[in-house]
Write a structure and sequence with these properties.
Chains A, B: Pathway: Amino-acid biosynthesis; L-leucine biosynthesis; L-leucine from 3-methyl-2-oxobutanoate: step 3/4. The structure is a homodimer. Helices cover about 40% and strands about 20% of the residues of chain A. The first copy, chain A, has helices at about 15-30, 45-50, 55-65, 90-100, 120-125, 165-180, 195-210, 220-230, 245-255, 295-305, 310-325, 345-355; strands spanning about 1-10, 35-40, 70, 105-110, 130-135, 145-150, 155-165, 185-190, 215-220, 240, 265-270, 275-280, 330, 340. In chain A, strands 2-1-3-12-11-4-5-10-8-9 form a ten-stranded mixed beta sheet, with helices on both faces. The complex binds magnesium ion (2 copies).
Chain lengths: ~350, ~350
Amino acid sequence: MNKNITLIYGDCSSPEIVTQAVRVLDKIAARHGHTFTYTRAYMGGEAIDRFGDPLPASELEKCKSSDSVLLGAIGGPKWEGLPGDQRPEKGLLRLRAGMGLYANNRPAKIWPQLADASPLKKSIVDQGIDFIVVRELIGGVYFGEHKTIEQNGEKVAIDTMPYSEHEIERIGRIGFETAMKRRKKLTCVDKANVLDTSRLWRAVMHRLQAEYPEVEYSEMFVDNCAMQICKNPAQFDVIVTENMFGDILSDEASEITGSIGMVPSSSLGEGTCGLYEPIHGSAPDIAGQDVVNPIACILSAAMMLRYSFDMLAEADEIEAAVNAVLDEGYRTADMMAPGCTRVGCTEMGNKILEHI
Amino acid sequence: MNKNITLIYGDCSSPEIVTQAVRVLDKIAARHGHTFTYTRAYMGGEAIDRFGDPLPASELEKCKSSDSVLLGAIGGPKWEGLPGDQRPEKGLLRLRAGMGLYANNRPAKIWPQLADASPLKKSIVDQGIDFIVVRELIGGVYFGEHKTIEQNGEKVAIDTMPYSEHEIERIGRIGFETAMKRRKKLTCVDKANVLDTSRLWRAVMHRLQAEYPEVEYSEMFVDNCAMQICKNPAQFDVIVTENMFGDILSDEASEITGSIGMVPSSSLGEGTCGLYEPIHGSAPDIAGQDVVNPIACILSAAMMLRYSFDMLAEADEIEAAVNAVLDEGYRTADMMAPGCTRVGCTEMGNKILEHI
Ligand SMILES: [Mg+2]
Ligand SMILES: [Mg+2]
């Protein structure tokens, strides 16, 4: 198959991980007779430096017209003083919106080799951590109106959190569909005792529930969910939630796996063109040192093969290679443990390539 | 001293815990020559049943005209189908707003006797968990406008998240003042890369920072904070944050202590009249069984003595009694552990009274 992949190398230490992911993709392509061509697009800090805009129309167009987008991570201290509209993160928000990517899938799964790295105690980890947060990605308060006005002699800032029925329905459906492919349990997380958006969310979910009688559906308040993720993560199979709650809970969920540097994510909309990216940040403190962990980005590339290109064997092969390298005891600095062998970013890439 | 305390017995299993807290208050009053008189007010489900309103004006008035309010917990399945404005929780939101209680203080502290109950692993717990979440309580999206409209043939719900400078300044000041009384570290938690309210929050905090040069001030995004509370809670001394973020993070913070049934809270405004309540819910599933843990409510009463009545020795005495009972190995069902003696709600009250 021929696939055109847009690469966003990203900021700070991010280009180092994207480079390793591309090496892996190239080897997979060679082995399986695919041709991956790459288009480079600029987004985030790099785009600000180059174009004065975190996502120029030309770059969004490259992403939309490709078969999928692989991103590292963006942002860094260099751009933190900029006004809201010109921040690197705004480029990412606009990219998700511009590509119509409303469904962010964030797996939270323990790698057995790294189970000791979980901050949770063994008795909880041993019950299993294997769930997915399906986060609505282009609605809610992150995409509502933001304004700051003068009122009674002081500034008043107002952010607006809107959700419409169709926005809820399409992500709710992904929640149910994802649950159907897994252990058939779906938890809708909201704050329906206070927010109108949450109550509309529940009303729509109840309609969908009728279409998925096999799914064990439940509802949970967001503050309780933040507790339950620590207390009893084994109870979860699929969590579906709005954008901001999903932002907070999916990061907490990743943290309890103990290996943030291992967590990939996918963002999808109506078609098969998706955005694949690690959930970790751009790690400005270690940029240029070849010590950053490339695995989340490599696993994001595997997710791209699986979910956007339907290349299941190829995705399996990458994931198996990562597993083998962990079995051999190779670790980047962020996940180093006693008895293991510390490797840098490029060397981790080499080790994974050896198993493909 | 004479003090008039308003009691809100609350819903489901809540009256059982308030009853024990009142017994403790009475014994403290007798020993120290104080006179506590009690006024009963109705709020939440009980008020809905009695008045058709979760907080009638008469009940708010009782609370405002007393020296402080002791609350158990409200809500339950009985009232869950009601429209947003008539829910029990709405009574609590209106009570906080009506009393002008903008500062919610939520301590997250490990009791050494219960350290094993933490979901976090020992190596993290051993670094110490002792921080306070100072949550803004009467602003932000929980108190903004909530509406659901018809637009393009579908429903659209919109919640509004407003913050004005004076609202931020008064809670920010409490954050700095609280830090000054502790380890002098303050973390402002927000989502300033996306929200206007967060950016205004930071601007105000930077002004206050100039007044508190001794405080080590830092800022953290809310999603990262949800991770850090699991990963490295020892880094925190005081967290100051807006209402909804504080709702989520303070519950997560309580959970990592492993003993939700032990966590009290205070809510204060300009004067000394505060609202004191456990952070746990009304535990409908065990209502009427005399098994609910009364300690968080008893510790809330102790906080009331300390922060609203300046009765420091009396508060110390209650806390020491709780500590002694834990040392003796008495536990309610929620915190039962091997080798301990299980007691019910009234009996836990008895045991604590024995040490006063
Ligand atoms: Mg996040
Ligand atoms: Mg809460």
